[in-house]
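B., you asked whether I could sanity-check this one before it goes into the benchmark set. Here's the sequence:
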Amino acid sequence: MPPAAERVPWRWLVAGRASRRLVLVVVFVALLLDNMLLTVVVPIVPTFLYTTEYEGTNSSVAPARTEPAPPALKAPPFSSMFSYFDNSTVTVSGSMSTVDLANGTESSHLPQPLTSSPPLLSRCPEGEEFLAKENIRVGLLFASKALVQLVINPSVGLLTNRIGYHIPMFIGFIIMFLSTVMFAFSGTYTLLFIARALQGIGSSFSSVAGLGMLASVYTDDFERGNAMGIALGGLALGVLIGAPFGSVMYAFVGKSSPFLVLAFLALLDGALQLCILQPSKISPESTKGTPVFTLLRDPYILVAAGALCFSNMGVAMLEPTLPIWMMQTMCSPKWQLGMAFLPASISYLIGTNLFGILANKMGRWLCSLIGMAVVGISLLCVPLAKNIYGLIGPNSGLGFAIGMVDSSMMPIMGYLVDLRHTSVYGNVYAIADVAFCMGFAIGPSTGGAIVRAIGFPWLMIIIGVINIAYAPLCWYLRNPPAKEEKIAILSQECPMQTKSYTTQKTLRDFPLTDDSDVEAENAE
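And here's what the prediction gave me:
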């Protein structure tokens, strides 16, 4: 092979490592896999626990209730018989015995064809008390991922400031792969709980490092908004595929099959990261980032984080409670439990990609305000559904509105750091992920208890009203002020070499630190 041909893959690798688009692809795939694993368990866990624990303990009673009739007395479901009394043919039920036919009592069985098919309620799962308790257990299992992520996120933010984004991103892939394999072969509630908690650790590394990496390579506000919209599209696609994919694979193939497919996709993502992200490279930020506690004292960052938390808390409460509510009230089969989330996922995918661009034009604060109001209204409409088709409208509105909020608030987080703090993004996206995780921790853990205490409709009313009441606070993000120290420094035209930022023209070239006064005096 000529030397020039040998250099082609190496040149592609070097060019790929310098490409912002390929970094965006890696983050997109990582968020896709994380959220597929997040939602693929939603339709599987309730029915799996019901099958293994409730039906398993009652299997000895079931055969006595469902013992079939002796073969000699079986007949086709419906059969014709000629009546010599009035020279007519009548249809008789298959449940008629040969003794009835001999005695000529066919008239007493004539109404049976109308009720020969089992009624709808016979498909409903038994064990109302078990399902009520399962609301709480399933909610705690789902919340374990977010609770662990909540604890780990601040440490990951500090770690990315020290060693860069490459190594944490790869650590997240390894942990996510182990969690996926553990899900595939877990047969008890305890093992499923551990696998879910392990997923939280991997998700923390992947999401914080990924979003921080995007914010660092896309310094222009408009480009950053578009990149965040595309990355959140990966999140949306994972949510879109996860629940329907899990329900169909579980119903027709088996519990392990969806997780094994995700494990294979995770390996592909790891290979992509090895090629693109240089996970052995330590690249700390050249500028010291603003401490987490300083960012948490910023009221504008808190408003943005609250919007992320409460808007996602609604769908987090739906995940453990909606499938069980459908099993109780709609008698839904397994495959419908995941399909109920399909409208929300499709509309979320559309919302994140559409408003990644539109939000910058109409105002991200206005986009998030409208989104939170629509989230509240959609949640109020969910209990009105009488079947799975009645859930299409509310779930579609819910997904679209959450897409509006997420695609607006993620770029706002980076914008607020550039405007009011230091342009190092690990800590602020750790806060954003903490807010997201608080919604997915508080939602499932409290949702199951609230459903057991006052019912599913009241749960939807509570979280819907909270979203509508919080929406006006997004108005404060309309024109957040810059820090006074930065304005004073900029007025002195302090000559410093920094990254460019293009939203505020008077501030774009100077994302300075709080110690810039001392540096300016030394420069003079």
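One thing to flag: Confidence is low (pLDDT under 50) at residues 60-122, 489-514. Otherwise nothing jumped out at me.
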